[in-house]
Amino acid sequence: MNYRHAYHAGNFADVFKHALLAMCLEHMKGKDKPFFVLDTHAGIGLYDLASDEAVKTGEWHHGIGRLMEATDVPAELTPYLDVVRGLNPEGGLRYYPGSPWVAKALTRAGDRVALCELHPADAEALAATVRRDRRVKVHAQDGYAAIKSMLPPPERRGMVLIDPPYERRDEFAALEQAVVDGIKRFAGGTFALWYPIKDALEIANFHARLEDLGVPKTLSIDLMVRRSRRGLPRLDGCGYVFINPPYGMLAGLERVMPFLSGLLALDDGAGWTQRWLVPEG
Ligand SMILES: C[S@@+](CC[C@H](N)C(=O)[O-])C[C@H]1O[C@@H](n2cnc3c(N)ncnc32)[C@H](O)[C@@H]1O
């Protein structure tokens, strides 16, 4: 477990990840009934963009740095941007939220948030960050195991974010198993699986295996920020597979994705695609 998200906080991949997470949560709030959020790979929850790690890579300049300077931002991004602004009340950009903070900020008094983080020091830091909020619980445990032990939630409504570090060779296989385990227990839940795009073939195979699983309403959304170069594995894009995306989120994506792919582009190979791997019914 060597992955440290602090090097990457606020980069283009985080902007895509957290913007769509925020959109999903906002749509879930369309109904009064409380819901449950399970973040299986939570990280530390909050990041200082002036830390040695963030300064060393400077990745956030091409992510949240660009978005905070942007004009004509689609209204669907306002809740996410308000979370970032709320962490920087003096203006400017010093602190950036991780997924736990986005979930904590955009859920209501009756909703519940469970955060799993396996790295002991990170779980401790995360617990310190969210300690004042009794709706939010940190579990220093394997997030994949939580899919089995925490689902279905008593609320019978909820979303599961699966955002692993992709250090394991079998991470994509683990994700597929998580879908099988999750859907078996919580067929009506919303599942959001984030993945890096370093190798187009790897992603095509992943999508094909999810098609074979045949879970209705499985949608892929991919964002490329630059052209892939054969034989050069690097982070050229990232994507989500959403299962059961909330009704209403899709129309927003039609506005948000062209905006983000233009804003976050690093060369003329930037773009986005959205495809039902398995449609409804
Ligand atoms: C990509 S980071 C998470 C970032 C976070 N979701 C966010 O958006 O702010 C992945 C995290 O998963 C943790 N991790 C790795 N394996 C895990 C496991 N099996 N269960 C729970 N956490 C794990 C790592 O320590 C790391 O903090």
CATH superfamily: Vaccinia Virus protein VP39
Q: What are the segments in which pLDDT stays under 50 over at least 5 consecutive residues?
A: none
Q: Output the strand order for the largest sheet.
A: 5-4-1-6-7-9-8-10
CATH architecture: 3-Layer(aba) Sandwich
Instruction: Indicate the CATH class.
Output: Alpha Beta
Structural class from helices and strands? alpha/beta
Distance between the termini: 40 Å
Beta strand %: 15-25%
Order of helices and strands: HEEHHHEHEHEHEHEHEEHE
Number of E-state strands? 10
- List the ligand species: S-adenosylmethionine
Determine the number of helices (DSSP H or I, runs of at least 4 residues).
Answer: 10
Domain count: 1
CATH fold-level label: Rossmann fold
Binned, the helix content reads 25-40%
Q: What is the chains' assembly state?
A: single chain
Mean pLDDT: 96
Radius of gyration: 17 Å
Major sheet description: 8 strands, mixed
Principal-axes shape call: globular
